[in-house]
Amino acid sequence: MDLISDILLIAGAAGAAFYCIVLSRRLSRFTNLDQGVGGAIAVLSAQVDDMTRALAEAQGSANGSTETLATLTERAEDVARRLELMVAAMHDLPEGAAADGGGPEENAADAVPDEAAAPPPVSKPSFTHARPPAEAAEPASLFRSHRTWSQEAAE
């Protein structure tokens, strides 16, 4: 009976030793930095770093786009204001000049001189402090509402 108990005890010890060896191999593969969970953690850590850099670049690009869009929006609002003023100014023109561009069928009271009908040529701005010529400072007005009292009294 002692012999049978010794054989069972040796078999149990051998089974436990075999189980410990298998468990040790699995644990070493599990913590392996190349293929196991350690490797997965290292890969995920590298991906997090890459995503952080990509996010920072995307935020920088978005901020640049936001600034550009804000600038373009301001320019568009400025142009819209100018267009609104031009449309409002078109209502001040005599009806014949607005409809057909000031043709010969206008009556003499609404006639505009040729030099006043054409807008003055646009020149590039100079960055000097010189004053513009007197005739360029006050171009002839196309609008009757801009006439001075002295001009109406003279007529």
Structure, explained:
By secondary structure, the chain is mainly α. It has 6 helices and no strands. It has helices at residues 2-30, 37-90, 95-100, 114-117, 134-137, 149-154. The longest helix is centred in the middle third of the chain and has 54 residues, at 37-90. The model is unreliable at 103-109 and 126-147 (pLDDT under 50).
Topology:
Blueprint: H1 2-30, H2 37-90, H3 95-100, H4 114-117, H5 134-137, H6 149-154
User: Using DSSP, what is the number of strands?
Assistant: 0
* pLDDT < 50 runs, ≥5 residues: 103-109, 126-147
What are the secondary-structure elements, in order, as H or E? HHHHHH
- Sketch the major β-sheet: none
Helix content: 55-70%
Distance between the termini: 146 Å
Helix/strand class = mainly alpha
Q: β content, as a range?
A: under 5%
* Rg calc: 45 Å
* Overall body shape: rod-shaped
Number of helices: 6
* Mean pLDDT metric: 75
